[in-house]
Amino acid sequence: MTPSSVATPPAPEANASGWSRESGQAPPESSAGATLRRAKLGDALLGWACRLSAALIALMLISLIVVLVHSAWPAIRQFGPGFLVSSEWRANEIERPVRDAAGKLILRDGETVMETLPPAFGALPVIWGTAVSSAIALLIAVPISLSAAIFLVRVAPKLKIAGAASFLIEFLAAVPSLAFGVWALFVLAPIFQTYVGPFLYRIFEPIPGLRWMFYESVTVAGRTIERPIPLTGRDLFTGSLILAIMILPIVTSVSRDVLRAVPRTQIEGTLALGATWWQSCIAMLRYGRSGLMGAIMLGLARAAGETMAVTMVIGNNNQISPSPFAPAQTMASVLANEFGEASEGLHRAALLYVALILLTMSLIFNVIARRLVIGRLASVSH
Amino acid sequence: MNHRLISGFASVAIGAASALAGDVRLSGAGATFPAPLYTRWVSEYEKGHPSVQIDYRSIGSGGGVKAIADKTVAFGATDAPLTEKEIAAMGGTDSVVQFPAALGAVVPAYNLPGVDKPLQFTGAVLVDIYLGRISTWDDAQLQKLNPDVKLPKTPITPVFRTDGSGTTHVFTSYLGTQSAEFKGEVGVGKQVKWPLGQGGKGNEGVAAVIQQTAGAIGYIEHNYAIANKIAFGAVQNKAGKFVLATPESVSAAGDTSSAELKGNVLRADVWNAPGDGAYPISAFTYIVLYKQLENIKTPADASALLGYQRWTLGPGQKFAAEMHYAPLSEKVQAAALAALNSVTHQGKAIPAQP
Amino acid sequence: MTGSFAEFRRRTFSSIMFGLCAGGAALIISILLLVIGYLVWIGVSSLSWEFLTAVPTGDVANPGGMRHAIDGTIILVALASLVGVPIGVLAGIYLSEYPTEYAVTGPLRFIADVLTGVPSIVVGILGYELFVVPVSRWTQSTISYSGYAGAAALAFIMIPIVARTTEEMLRLVPKNYREGSLALGATRAQTIFRVVLPGAFGGVATGIMLAMGRIAGETAPLLFTALGSRLLTHNPAEPFPSLTLQIYTYATGPYPEQKRLAWAGILVLLAMLFVVNLSIRLIAARHARTRVGA
């Protein structure tokens, strides 16, 4: 909902509130001292109530960071920044025989020597899952969103459907992610499992360079096996696709606002110089490029933090596979899957470490997005 | 979903308890695996003992152990027996009582349209499936185990639990006995790193993935597979027999361990148990108490707690089979009762329940 | 000759791109209509009177309804709004009406913006660490998931949204309204409550409704705070049901009858959002009339 859709008088002077400290004081002739005192008290009370509420907002951000850092501390201390690049995510201890360099068991007094591997946690698989799924989602959503935004700004007003189309897109931005998730689980995933997956397999599998898309290597105890990936419809690709669908409305509506803000003279100027419709669009996109980057960043932030829909269709396996048809896990989905039952201290701390990374990432994306589209977004992003 | 279901029941128990002031109210917490059975026990027991209210919250085995160690509950429940460290934290072997309450089994459940006879598995084949070495259902090893079944060429999708659970602990412990490689690479635990496959949250998540994916195989609790009519297979036991999980075959697995069950801290791993009729992926689920019940305030509470626990080991056992868990065999019941009877209330003998 | 061919190519390319843009817009609308249409279609066929009035049974073949979850969502949203709306509105007033304190309001506005982008699962985990774990420590109880914790997590999401929309709406009230009120001898508090807030009422209410709609559809913040329950309970000190949690549980479970309930639940959720959007339009329209009349 944009401010313009709410009835308020058009007010060019509206953007600054009209008082300073002096003007806030009641005029002297306003009756007895008691009333004046009461009025002053009222002002003071309101002022402090407002300041307190505003302070709470700052406190919210501080508590978010402090609590996450504090609770994640055991994992931060143990794994440090190496957490970001380690791909081992294993909550259990492993006891196994020690082998020498040649792979032979080491014996001492006739017994095999055992070693115990402590639980290990590394965030690379979930960072990978988040990065790849967000990237694929953007790759799909951005061209569609930008073309739709151009259509909404350049064409739709002439056809008198801009209002209806915009309303629809904004309503869809309000549809909860759970609804998309359920749809993805029961409609998208089975379609992929039964039709799209096998279809893609038939087309791409014979191409020699694309074997990695349909086969996975499983390495256990130094033995690597290549096996076909079962096409289940719950994989990185389906997860990315539902993310793409979910970020379409936000990227479209913000891009539309950015493009709408491009001065008419810019477009008319290019047209006057003999540019085609498309060339004038290019000029428009170029003019609004920083704002459009902001729209894309906002979509990225949304995609990276999305939880429910992704958890339902991504397959939930903390692995790094090059194939889009292998199950994967994102930062948000590993939290939804494992946090509830993670009773062991380090495991819980590691999950909180993941939450901290996710928070940091989405804060960075949001800050960049807001820097790029200053002011325009607050009213449309939700 | 089970724990939500149980906590729901539990909140009813609280409401009722607060309405009847002066009655005994006991709380327990822990394992989700036996939670449906415990809920049944509580409701059956409360029918016969209206002055006792028992509130069991299934918050996971880890939570149950933590809760009893913190003395926030009267009894804890856990699928994995207490570790030495946990026992030490509770004051050592002399201050803890642990006994099995029932047995459960984990079954290999699958989705293979057109196959209506239970398939037969060996531990080695299950290991190979979960390590990716058997990748289609018509694999020679599987076909050899199931000569009368026409197995399809469908690829196998192994399914695992993403959340920490006793079910995963039992299943990996069993696979660990079948393959040193599995034990050394994937390991044993409530949550392990599976080299491949799809994850589902909870029994219901795994069951849903199995049902939606032709060719999927997953490990779920026996009672859950029965209640939801999910096909599951027989597993070859130590004696070389293929056994389906039934209350009898799982009880038989427990019975083989009765010689190990001595003293007041009982534990026995019954996966891969010997005996012709024993189902190999079985496990005890345990109750943990303080030996001197220092976490219990009044003698009346202590006697009610003891009364309930004795009842579960006696008349209560018949509900285990009804709920598709397995009752303790007579020898195991005797050992469990002996452990339970070593309990005192802060050193004093506990009066029998009125 | 070549020049006009280049020109022809240029024009054709432009036409193609025009088609692609129109196609993009059509694609978005049709994808989204497909999703919503499907959800509504299946939802309507799964909806029943029992769904709205019955509570869950233990029987998976005949699972009852979602009355408990509908009540749960309404209570959670009400509780969250009880906390979130006053704080959000007051904070919004501060951001808009205290321009002399810009050294504070600038960074605060930025923080509020940033907070609206925090992933909801992270809010859920904060809620767990902040409201579930400490309560469990203080009360020495084993389990402290509660409706209060869930509502707190939802309020966390709501406050920055309400604050920022309130601010934006108050800024649209012309400066001379305030000056006029002050000149007539009203205090600042009187001016804000009698002139500025009524002037922006439609916009502020819209912001609040939008925030309520947003939190009504949230699942992730409730996973580790309210936890969910299959009982009809109106006591927020207990583990608490919500429509979204119940839909999630049913949708990811194996029982076909429960899946039907999940579909119906989605429909009810969408209907709630639709009502919210409709109310927003009504409020805006009514507001416009009164303004015109005045």
Question: Please, could you describe this protein's structure?
Answer:
Chain A is 59% helix and 7% strand. Chain A is mainly α and 382 residues long. Chain A folds into two domains: 89-121, no CATH class; 122-381, MetI-like (MetI-like fold). In chain A, the strands form four sheets. Chain A has a two-stranded antiparallel ribbon. The longest helix of chain A is centred in the first third of the chain and has 47 residues, at 33-79. Chain A is flat, with a radius of gyration of 28 Å. The N and C termini of chain A lie close together (8 Å). Chain B is of the alpha/beta class. Chain B has two domains: 3-104 and 253-272 and 280-349, Periplasmic binding protein-like II (D-Maltodextrin-Binding Protein, domain 2), CATH 3.40.190; 106-251, Periplasmic binding protein-like II (D-Maltodextrin-Binding Protein, domain 2), CATH 3.40.190. Chain B has 14 helices and eleven strands. Chain B has an eight-stranded mixed β-sheet, with helices on both faces. In chain B, strands 5-9-10 form a three-stranded mixed β-sheet. In chain B, a hairpin with a 5-residue loop joins strand 9 (234-236) and strand 10. Chain B is elongated. Chain B starts with a helix and ends in a 13-residue tail after the last helix. Chain C is built from twelve helices and no strands. Chain C has helices at 2-46, 49-53, 67-97, 102-116, 120-139, 147-171, 175-183, 188-199, 201-216, 220-223, 243-251, 256-293. Chains in contact: A-B, A-C, B-C. The interface between A and C is large, with 115 and 123 residues.
